[in-house]
Amino acid sequence: GNFKLDNGVLRNLSSINFDSSVPNVLIDFADNLGGMNNGVITFMGGGSWDLQSRVEANNIRVEDATLNTMGNEIDVYGLSLASPSSIINLGASDLYLNSLDDFSGGGATLNAGTSTIYLGGDNGSFSGNFTLNNVSVLDGGWFFVNANLSVINLILDAGSTLEISQGLTLTTSAIAAIGT
């Protein structure tokens, strides 16, 4: 069934596992009290999950499931796709994260939509042969590319770092370096 928290409920859990084969299960974390203490949220079981609220956690992991962000903000340290049947549909969501990983061996699907990924941490590691829409590396942020990657619009703020592993390619339609 669906999962809905009321506003004011403090989540301080090391992990939450959503396991179902049912499509379009609704997930609503309300006002997300607890922040990064919320550990790992895992979606699995072959079903699909539709976010109804902003999500803040340490990591989100998608295993043999589909996660639809439905335009909601995602604030996590890491986002990972863990099996070839993993799908994440980002839609128009804003994502604040440090790492994006494809542990599936290259078979997972990331549909970027019109999303924007903001990198503000000093460990922005990306692996996975994905096409991303907008990536903005904030002042002090680090974007480390560990796989061939496409970014439609890449913005590098002053004080940010872009590093591409030897032999790999970062393809972009537009790149802007802002500031001095």
What is shown here, in short?
This protein has 180 residues and is mainly β. The protein has strands spanning 3-4, 15-19, 25-28, 40-44, 48-51, 55-62, 66-68, 74-81, 87-89, 94-96, 99-102, 109-111, 116-119, 124-126, 131-137, 142-145, 149-157, 161-164, 170-178. The chain starts with a strand and ends with a strand.
Quantity of strands, as a count: 19
Kindly name the structural category.
mainly beta
Q: Profile the largest sheet.
A: 13 strands, parallel
Characterize the quaternary organization of these chains.
single chain
What share of residues is helical? under 10%
What sort of overall outline do the alpha carbons produce when their principal axes are compared?
Answer: globular
Task: Tell me the strand percentage band.
Answer: over 45%
Number of helices: 0
Q: What do the pLDDT scores average to?
A: 91
State the order of secondary-structure elements, H for helix, E for strand: EEEEEEEEEEEEEEEEEEE
Catalogue the unreliable spans.
none
| Rg from Cα | 16 Å
For the record, give the distance between the C-alpha atoms at the N and C termini, rounded to a whole number. 51 Å
